[in-house]
Write a structure and sequence with these properties.
104 residues; alpha/beta; 3-stranded parallel beta sheet; globular
Length: 104
């Protein structure tokens, strides 16, 4: 059996820079602990929407982890330009060594 994490980057009392850093350190711990995957929700203009650009946040995840698979759940297609999104997906997959998992 493999375990993964589904996450919302929801607002708390930390300054945003510290919030992102704390969450990235937690994701590093998931990688060290042997979790299979980390998936991130895409929300816009809500308190649970502090990752409105999942690709940007997940590129940091790619650089800080070695085995953990990751991806957005899901890309909200109506708010993305199709060409730009496929380019981001391809670039993120290359940066991660093929660990990206996507959902639409």
């Amino acid at each position: 059996m493999e375990f993964g994490v589904f996450d919302h980057l929801d607002r708390n009392d930390l300054p945003l820079k510290d919030f992102y850093e704390a969450r990235l350190k937690l994701i590093e711990a998931y990688d060290r602990a042997g979790f299979y995957a980390y998936h991130l929700a895409e929300h816009h203009s809500t308190p649970i929407g502090l990752a409105p650009s999942p690709s940007v946040f997940l590129s940091a995840v790619a650089q800080r982890t070695r085995r953990l698979r990751f991806g957005p759940l899901v890309y909200a297609l109506p708010v993305h330009h199709p060409l730009r999104l496929i380019e981001e997906i391809c670039m993120l997959d290359q940066l991660s060594g093929g660990r990206l998992e996507i959902g639409f």
